[in-house]
Structures are given as C-alpha cells and as structure tokens.
Write a structure and sequence with these properties.
alpha+beta, 5-stranded antiparallel sheet, two-stranded antiparallel sheet, 2 helices, disordered C terminus
Length: about 170
C-alpha cells in the first residue's frame, strides 16, 4: 500500500515536471520568435532609412548636376555602402530621372535598388521636387550668391531670345 502511494506521488510529480518543462519551452519559443521578428523589423527599418539617406543624397546630386547643366535628365549612380551585419561593403544603385511636370516644375524620380543573389530588390522609389538655383545677372557682391532664391526652369516653349518679361514670369520660389 505504501509502495502504491509513493508510486502515485512520483507519477504525479513527473507529470507536473513534464508539464512545467513544456510550458517553459513554449514560453522560450515565443520569446525567440518575437526576438527574430524584431530583428527583422529593425533590419528593414535600417534598410529603409539608408535608402532615404541615399535618396536625399541623389536628389542633392541631381540638383547640382541640373544647376550645372540645364538639360541634365538623370543618371545612374552607384554609391558604396557598408553592411554592419556582414562587415562588408556593397554597392547600391541609385537611379535618378528628372521629368518636367505640366507646370514646368522639374520633378525627380529616385529609385534605390540593391542587387541580391535572387535579383535586384527595390528598396525605395520616391518622387521629389528639384530646386535649381541660378545666380542673378546684376549681382555685384560675391557673398550674395549664397542667398539666391530657387527658381523653376523656364517652360520648354520659351527661347533665350525672348524678352526679359517672360523671364520674370517664370521665376517663382517654392
């Protein structure tokens, strides 16, 4: 009789121990799954922020190139970036295309692409306004060149031989 009671207590203790181990393993599996999901979300957010930074750099670069050459229509730029997880540098492809909308304002389409083993992956595709700064012709003080107002490029139908009245109508600040 005493042997049966001891066996019963041992069996109950064993069942409780197994149930606690199952519960503990379930909790640890949930924590590990959430940690992996958070790591993936952080990596996606980092990738998006990096793409935003490159898009801003591409827009600035396109604005400067457009300022130097008014007929600049876009290019492909391959900046080198660094991957902290894999401790290696890799190249992204920043493609810029400048389009003039119906109001004559230049818009830039920026696409950031990363080459992977499975093919190209588009990280970001945005459209931003291009600000083109021009120097005024009557500027006597060289320090005034830094405070020029942004202007839109003239509409395609205007020619350089037109009067200055049409030139003043195309100048507008953003």
């Amino acid at each position: 009789m005493i042997v049966r009671v001891v066996r019963r207590r041992r069996a109950i203790a064993m069942v409780i121990a197994i149930a606690l181990l199952l519960l503990l393993s379930l909790i640890s599996a949930i924590v590990v799954r959430q940690s992996i999901a958070m790591l993936g979300a952080t990596a996606r957010q980092l990738s998006h922020l990096q793409a935003e930074h490159l898009a801003t750099a591409a827009a600035d670069r396109a604005s400067l190139l457009r300022e130097a050459d008014p007929v600049f229509a876009g290019d492909t730029w391959k900046p080198t970036t660094f991957d902290d997880e894999q401790s290696r540098a890799y190249r992204l492809q920043a493609t810029t295309a400048i389009n003039v909308d119906d109001r004559g304002a230049p818009q830039i389409q920026i696409t950031i692409v990363r080459e992977t083993a499975s093919g190209p992956v588009t990280l970001l595709s945005v459209q931003r306004r291009v600000i083109v700064r021009t120097k005024p012709a009557d500027s006597e003080n060289p320090s005034d060149d830094k405070t020029d107002a942004p202007v839109e490029s003239p509409p395609p139908e205007s020619t350089p031989s037109e009067s200055s009245a049409s030139d003043s109508s195309t100048r507008a600040s953003y």
